[in-house]
Amino acid sequence: MASGEGRRQRHHHDLVPLAVLLKREMKSERMGMGKPTLRYGHAAQSKKGEDYFLVKTDCQRVPGNSSSSFSIFAIFDGHNGNAAAIFTREHLLNHVLGALPRGLGRDEWLQALPRALVAGFVKTDKEFQSRGETSGTTATFVIVDRWTVTVASVGDSRCILDTQGGAVTTLTVDHRFEENIEERERVTSSGGAVGRLSIVGGVEIGPLRCWPGGLCLSRSIGDMDVGEFIVPIPYVKQVKLSNAGGRLIIASDGIWDALSSETAAKSCHGLPAELAAMQVVKEALRTRGLKDDTTCIVVDIIPPDNELPSAPAPKKQNKLRVLLSKMRFGGSTNKVSKNLSAVNIVEELFEEGSAMLAERLGNYDNSGKSTSGLFVCAVCQVDLAPSEGISVHAGSIFSTSSMPWQGPFLCLDCRDKKDAMEGKRPSGVKVS
To answer: Which cofactors, by name (predicted)?
Structure first.
């Protein structure tokens, strides 16, 4: 993965349109690629009682249509209490789904997911902060739709992908001030102060934190006492797996403070998902002890003809496979390469981590109109009269639109929150 947060989507001339990729996927499925089987397991050890998780495998894009099913796996690591983690577990999924336009086909639905995830995260944060509680939570939210995996995250819970023989890929970015220079610069430029805890004699100790509040994370849901430049706008990454499948390991920082991504993946190779989750937790506790809530979900995305993920094949078998492929295709190296390119290759469809709401919501071709003919707020989904909506691009140097009157639109409250997240007004001060 490229380092830094920034703007992650590749230049247009390097991209193949998502619709084209998904049409190829559907064609491959008709030719025998099929729908993968999901197996998952969960394990946890509690220290503070602030870790929560969500597993939902019966979601449907089209109600009553089992062929439109997708699954959700998520971890919420609370701090300063568990209220934000509980609230996010209960409401985030509905807010994400509520931000998706109705009647989309699968390819358009997947293409709309990154924007809907941003809107859902921000709406969840806005609603929780309105309750006046001061706790916060990380959120690592994973959507698995056949071979396509979409991950949205704030904080330092992490999701990794192990292709069982390929490289271990991190699908999230840690939003810790200690490691993330770009996030430190963003927060300080928005009005926050970043530094270590100062004790008697001026000695500084511990990790970098944001002041006021002393939070180590630059992005979270909740944390209204820290400042709204601690934003809920998620890093989003969407990938398409090959028909070899893969394993997802989603875990709170109780795991990642003890284990590297590679060590976590290696520790559970060859084990079914339920035992794998238990093994990862066991390895973390063996390495570091129980110093924090420690939660892990393992998800295996298994090809239709396999019951369990297999351990990495020995190199001799790989060479033999190449030889057999050459024999099968009459010695054509081009055809052999094409055949092998489908094995353990992860194709990146989307990646973006900007904290600017205008940039993340983009442009709406339908101008953000609801089925009633009214405009809708892109974040909270309330109906707006044309005179009430404020374009997310109005007055923004980050606008992707040359016409600031274009959608998407925000209600006054959401525009107020957008300004606060960008440091355009003091946190907590309402704009009249």
So the answer is: Mg(2+); Mn(2+)
Low-confidence ranges of the chain (pLDDT < 70): 1-33, 164-166, 306-344, 364-374, 395-405, 425-432
Residue found under tokens 């180590």: 216
Alpha helices in 36-180 (DSSP H): 83-98, 106-129
Distance CA(322)–CA(335), nearest Å, equals 11
Q: Give the pLDDT confidence of 348-397 residue by residue, as tens digits.
A: 999 999 999 989 998 754 444 554 446 889 999 998 877 777 888 776 54
Burial class (CB within 10 angstroms; exposed 0-12, middle 13-18, buried 19+) of 77: buried
The domains of the chain are located at 12-174+235-351, 356-432
Q: Are 57 and 74 in contact (CB under 8 A)?
A: no
Parallel, antiparallel, or unpaired: how do β-strands 221-222 and 139-145 relate?
Answer: unpaired
Amino acid at 172: T
- H/E segment holding residue 43: strand 37-45
Contact 362, 400 (CB under 8 A): yes
pLDDT per residue as tens digits for the range 236-280: 999 999 888 999 999 999 999 999 999 999 999 999 999 999 999
Count of Cβ atoms closer than 10 Å to residue 130 Cβ: 10
**What helix, strand, coil percent values describe the chain, rounded to 5?**
30, 25, 45
Nearest to 183 by CA among 219, 159, 141, 150: 219
Q: Which CATH superfamily is domain 12-174+235-351 in?
A: PPM-type phosphatase domain (3.60.40.10)
Do 276 and 268 form a contact (C-beta atoms < 8 A)? yes
Taking the C-alpha atoms of residue 432 and residue 421, their distance in angstroms, rounded to an integer, is: 17
Residues 6+ apart with CB under 8 A from 212: 225, 226, 227
With beta carbons less than 8 A apart as the criterion, state whether 208 and 193 touch: no
Prior bond of 303 cis (ω within 30°): no
